[in-house]
Design brief:
The chain has 257 residues and is α+β, with helices and mostly antiparallel strands. The chain folds into two domains: 3-59, Arc Repressor Mutant, subunit A; 67-254, no CATH class. 43% of the residues lie in helices and 18% in strands.
């Protein structure tokens, strides 16, 4: 190992970085731009350092898929089906890890085969995250209420509507948080679905949310399952069309995974 390479690894050790960017290296002012370029060129060629994407790198031995995924979209965090799973709200696994970001929608596959789906949303929706890990090993995940709202907002990323209903039924939720996240989502259909299900499934802890939701009921009917057919009875209180019958919704909610 050359003197420059030793100094490069000493820098990583000093800052305890297993994952880093060129910008981070420059900010230390420990190496010149020329030295950084040279060290990265030789170390990526030897395989000691791995390129994640342009100007973002990791040590060869560092394979934490959660830290790596969030490092690629640091403004957001893990959400949707992935967050449901991480919170223990579903036992179903996806081959893709979903993250929310305000930057760009895309899929990304790492050199070790991990697949990420970055879902672009408005910046107003980039709220409600829990921080996990420490130092250079941090990543974020949407909290329980934000996960539920996000999944009802974009159910195509949530592992199926039955899983989502079960998760909603089995989770103790806070009305205040649910209201805040629904306002950020700016989706009246989501508010109506959540309020209707709160009453149907007798989630008394959400009575305050139900009263809040009543002020948003409009004249347009919303399908209870947005991915289902235009059919079923009409619920006038919530302007919901039950393309999944009430008895079926209750059975789904109370069924075992």
């Amino acid at each position: 190992m050359t003197n420059l390479q030793e100094r490069f690894f000493d820098l990583l050790d000093e800052y305890e970085w297993d994952i880093f960017s060129r910008k981070m290296l420059i900010s230390t002012q420990k190496l010149t731009n020329k030295e950084i370029t040279q060290a990265l060129r030789t170390l990526t060629k030897s395989g000691s350092i791995v390129i994640i994407e342009k100007e973002k790198y990791r040590r060869k031995s560092f394979l934490n898929e959660y830290v790596i995924g969030n490092f690629l979209v640091p403004d957001g965090g893990f959400a949707y089906w992935t967050a449901l799973n991480m919170h223990g709200l579903t036992e179903q696994f996806s081959g893709v890890k979903f993250l929310q970001t305000s930057r760009t929608s895309r899929e990304f596959v790492t050199d070790f085969g991990e697949t990420y789906k970055f879902v672009k949303v408005k910046s107003a929706k980039i709220i409600g995250y829990q921080q996990h890990g420490v130092g250079n090993h941090q990543y974020k995940i949407t909290d329980l209420e934000k996960t539920i709202v996000d999944c009802f907002d974009l159910p195509q990323y949530s592992g199926g509507y039955p899983e989502l209903i079960r998760a909603f039924y089995r989770t103790d939720l806070q009305s205040d948080k649910l209201k805040d996240y629904c306002l950020a989502a700016n989706n009246i259909s989501v508010i109506k679905r959540l309020a209707y299900l709160s009453e149907l499934l007798k989630k008394k802890e959400l009575n305050e949310f139900v009263n809040f939701a009543l002020t948003f009921v409009n004249k347009r009917y919303t399908l209870i399952d947005p991915m289902g057919n235009e059919e079923g009875k009409f619920n006038k209180r919530w302007k919901i069309r039950l393309n999944v019958p009430e008895n079926d919704l209750i059975l789904i909610a109370k069924s075992i995974y």
